[in-house]
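Moderator note: this is an archived Q&A kept for reference. The question asked for a predicted structure of one protein chain; the sequence and the answer are reproduced below.
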Amino acid sequence: MALKPTIYKVDLNLVDMDRNNYQQCKLTVALHPSETPERMMVRLLVYGLNQDQDLQFSRGLSATDEPDLWIIRPDGSVDHWIEVGQASADRIRKGISRAPEVSLYAYGSETDIWWEKNKDSLQALPKLSIYRFNWGEIQALTPMVMRNMELTLTISDGDLFIADDQHQVSLSLQKLS
């Protein structure tokens, strides 16, 4: 029998001063059995960075034809394809063929190695923005992971600050391309 995802309920208070966007988001996030808590938290950060009334999480890691998040307009068109992790150029091409805007948010202990290996092929792709989170900062988020989370995400001048009632983490986001 296949393992089922773990469901997390998140109250995300978004304070995005860069986009003048202030929202109270009630989210249900599924943690796939093969997904780490760090990856789930990166997905939450990326949700906040790209918040839109039509932004949604996809079916997850098991859906190979979908990104991690995407903006699907009411007419069914994909407006923004958003990947999380160290995606290949082939994976990103799927998004480029379906959406006018594609973003990749890389994280992990070996992001520098991945970037050096894939930089040329990724930078050659149109419509693609690539960002990198600092791995140490992402690891500092794991004490916040609980089945029910109340988080405040503040975005100002490209920097992120996330807090719950016991923890605070400041994160930087570097634009690679």
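Archived answer notes: The chain has one domain: 6-175.
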